[in-house]
């Protein structure tokens, strides 16, 4: 930053070159004045912050009041004559079982009628886990010797602890949790549940196992390579199934996937495989988040 | 049963891009990820070109059923000349930006995480295509969220403290916008009962004529437009941009500024034409609000830009000003105004990506410092990037023969609604043209002036970078000289959209 | 006013939305900001869940009897909520990962302090 004479032309030249102009005394005075605000200079910093807070709360209260006024004009809660009960809902409920084969009409809706949204949603989950991997997986930017020392100390402390109650109990409960999760996934189209809830249950079971036995035990059957293969494989299967469904549907081609008898597990066309794919992706993602947040690697 | 293959192209484009993102996770090398990304953008560009030629020749805009059920029971995509043109131009620009900025990506992002960066780029591309082609508002919300998370991940790719701050600031502002959009959607579903755009439009026309649910309709309009305006960085909501573009890679900044912001604006356009029809919008006087914010954004963006000493921040504020132009065009309210705005979307996307890629190369030539003063003489050491940057700057200012001039000319032509509007528009255009010149010309002078200090080595740009610069400049000249056929396609597209 | 009392689920959802929005915008502690985001999203799910309900009807799972529209509530909002919850979880996970990285570099959760430290760092580089 060069010190330049106060002539107008040289200031312009300096500004064109992107240099900051530092005058001697005058700029020093300017710098002092700059810390005082232009508006209402007699208020202190705390008073100014308080003023901002009050203004913010006021604006948000006005926003809430506008929304409350809107709610008072909306259709009545619980009435069967809402605009939302129209021919869309009629077809979903009355023809849902024949057209999708699923007894759980919500599952039929999200995996058949509006499957593109669910595809986008699976991608959001995949994207979130990839971005957390980008941020938290150990690399030269975010992991140094201090972190390594703390991590090793934690692992040693964990190994020292016996934790008999936790370990024995987990050995009994973990298979039951996994079984329950598998049940919820497979019955997604017949009863409340589905891929997302079942996957979350299995993920929770994996987290419990990790807490009781340590990451090295989980690594024996689930490491980063397998995590990537399972996630990508399931997402690709989902993509393939749905592409087939969209392609045959839009071009009015025959859909050869059988719908089965409603009420059986093997029914609903592609809904069962899609539920399984989604369940596996969610289970991997839940465990992946836990592992990355605690240790920085899966 | 004969299959109309061309009608399947929008579906193929979206799925190819998403598939590219998923497959990149299996690759173990950054270079292969780059090649896959380039291949996918090129294929989508070719598909979009075929689609564009087909729909303009047949003068049609078709809907594509996603599944076995038509609207309103299933999802749908909709494609017409305007959507195909946008998809084509965006895919070409994405290809050029990623190819031109690859050196910085490979040097600044940690090497085993480069492939994750390309997953993000692929998913941004897929969600931009989905937002262009969608016919359903909830699908738009899901893909907006994909866009948000992937953009924040691109911003923080470099991994140092300041880029993470920029990313979190970007995420907070984007989440505010998405939250408002979501509650607007829910209220819209409540009063109309539909999620597909044509069906919502029918119901809204009935509601607006009968006067039922008048207050909820106004509030829904406000929430949806404010939410999308926050996400596309209209004037008072622009604070997330400068830090984000300053601290990300040049290719990332180019894609975010040139393509991602535009996808939200295209969604606003679709909402104006296909959800709230022009009738309802004019009854609620929304276009006056957009007009005022557009003009204020144009002037204030330029004023902030000329106080900046760092080149990427200056380009960020310049984006804010250009987005103001587009909203002013929406606010003018007639078809000519919308046409001018759409042309400006293309012109700005082409110019901003050019500016960011060439600025990135100039910064690298002069040792990595981003101040304007530090770029002195960079043009002489790196002539390809210097000429490209100069072409971009002249286009932004609005010199004839460049892309920026054609869009400013059309903005002036479209302001035919009364003396007051005409005078405001012309004054604002003139003032902002002068302001643009004031902050762009000094940077151009600076890069071509004699370098002071020690002699730096001449830059060795790769052959692909030289081709990318030439291609960008050619696109700029094509948009600037042959704008008539492009304007005709846009007009045809807007007529079929409404 | 009494219509507001009748639509009390939607009213509560909208008030929670406003509280969440205010937190996301005004809080300076990063973790509290993202708790505000979660409150905002959860309020939207409450709103959607209330939208689907119709007095006297059950959940849309046809275990026995006929599938007629008079027996079941509206299934569409439930599907929207399912998608929304997954999106909200993803954004929260991403934001918490960003906060952890920020804490490692700047050792504080306060957004204003972090911006101040970052500005000083920038000034030192120039």
Topology of helices and strands:
The complex is a heterotrimer of chains A (298), B (498) and C (126).
Chain A (H helix, E strand, L loop, with lengths): L7 H9 L8 H11 L9 H27 L15 H8 L1 H5 L4 H9 L1 H22 L8 H16 L3 H23 L8 H19 L1 H5 L4 H27 L20 H25 L3
Chain B lengths: L8 H16 L5 H29 L3 E5 L8 E5 L1 H20 L1 H7 L5 H20 L3 H19 L5 H32 L4 H14 L3 H18 L9 H6 L3 H26 L2 H7 L1 H21 L4 H22 L2 H31 L12 H4 L1 H15 L5 H12 L3 H31 L14 H19 L1 H15 L1
Helix pairs in contact in B: 1-2, 1-5, 2-3, 2-5, 3-5, 3-11, 3-15, 3-20, 3-21, 5-6, 5-11, 6-7, 6-11, 7-9, 9-11, 11-15, 13-14, 13-19, 14-15, 14-19, 15-17, 15-18, 15-20, 15-21, 17-19, 17-20, 18-20
Chain C lengths: L1 H5 L1 H19 L3 H23 L23 H31 L4 H15 L1
Helix pairs in contact in C: 2-3, 3-4
Brief account:
The complex is a heterotrimer of chains A (298), B (498) and C (126). With 298 residues, chain A is mainly α.
Molecular structure report:
- The complex is a heterotrimer of chains A (298), B (498) and C (126).
- Chain A is mainly α.
- Chain A has helices spanning 8-16, 25-35, 45-71, 87-94, 96-100, 105-113, 115-136, 145-160, 164-186, 195-213, 215-219, 224-250, 271-295.
- Chain A contains 13 helices and no strands.
- In chain A, helix 6 crosses helix 7, helix 7 packs parallel to helix 13 and helix 12 (224-250) packs antiparallel against helix 13 (271-295).
- Chain A is extended, with a radius of gyration of 30 Å.
- Chain B is mostly helical and 498 residues long.
- Chain B has helices spanning 9-24, 30-58, 81-100, 102-108, 114-133, 137-155, 161-192, 197-210, 214-231, 241-246, 250-275, 278-284, 286-306, 311-332, 335-365, 378-381, 383-397, 403-414, 418-448, 463-481, 483-497; strands spanning 62-66, 75-79.
- Chain B has a two-stranded antiparallel ribbon with strand order 1-2.
- Chain B is globular, with a radius of gyration of 22 Å.
- Chain B starts with 8 loop residues before the first helix and ends with a helix.
- The model of chain B has no long low-confidence stretch (mean pLDDT 90).
- Chain C has a single domain (2-125), classed as Helix Hairpins, CATH 1.10.287.3510.
- Chain C has five helices and no strands.
- The model of chain C has no long low-confidence stretch (mean pLDDT 90).
- Classes of the chains: A mainly alpha (298), B mainly alpha (498), C mainly alpha (126).
- The interface between A and B is large, with 65 and 72 residues.
- Chain C: The chain crosses the membrane at residues 6-26, 38-58, 78-103.
- Chain C: InterPro entries: CPA3_antiporter_subunitC (IPR050601), NUOK/Mnh_C1-like (IPR039428).
- Chain C: Pfam families: Oxidored_q2 (PF00420).
- Chain C: Keywords: Membrane, Transmembrane, Transmembrane helix.
- Chain C: It comes from Dielma fastidiosa.
